[in-house]
Amino acid sequence: MKTLLFALPRLTRMIGGLLADREVPTGVKVILAAVAVYLASPVDLIPDFIPFVGYVDDILLAAVVLDGLLNHVDRRFVERHWPGSLAALDATAKVASLLAAWVPRRVKLRIFGGRGRA
């Protein structure tokens, strides 16, 4: 979890880059914009003022989105906008995959379901 927490600034920069990229499909941009708004919003499922626990929903959402991006979007888009090394992306993706496993499959499918590799 700590790996993903430290990767949040990189994820934020990557999401911004993906949103600005004309080649990224519109459906993916809608999902990323919604995630960006949720992460920036002071209204959360678990309020951020609760120490540690308050960030769990943000971290899980970031994990699901990163895992979904790597599984449903052409990896070259992610690699193009990842502001770190590919090794750091792979390490972050591994942690994201482990955390995303805690989220029910039906929830993940509602986010990225029905979208093949774009």
Give a topology summary.
Elements: H1 2-20, H2 26-40, H3 56-72, H4 75-81, H5 86-100, H6 105-112
Low-confidence stretches: none
Give the overall form: globular
**What class, by secondary structure content?**
mainly alpha
Major sheet size, sense and barrel closure: none
Beta-strand percentage? under 5%
The helicity comes to 55-70%
The topology string of helices and strands comes to HHHHHH
Q: Distance N terminus to C terminus? A: 28 Å
Written account of the structure:
The protein has 118 residues and is mainly α. It has one domain (2-112). The protein is 69% helix and 0% strand. The chain has six helices and no strands. It is globular and about 40 Å long.
Task: Give the tags.
0% strand, mainly alpha, 6 helices, 118 residues
Tell me briefly what this model is.
This protein has 118 residues and is mostly helical.
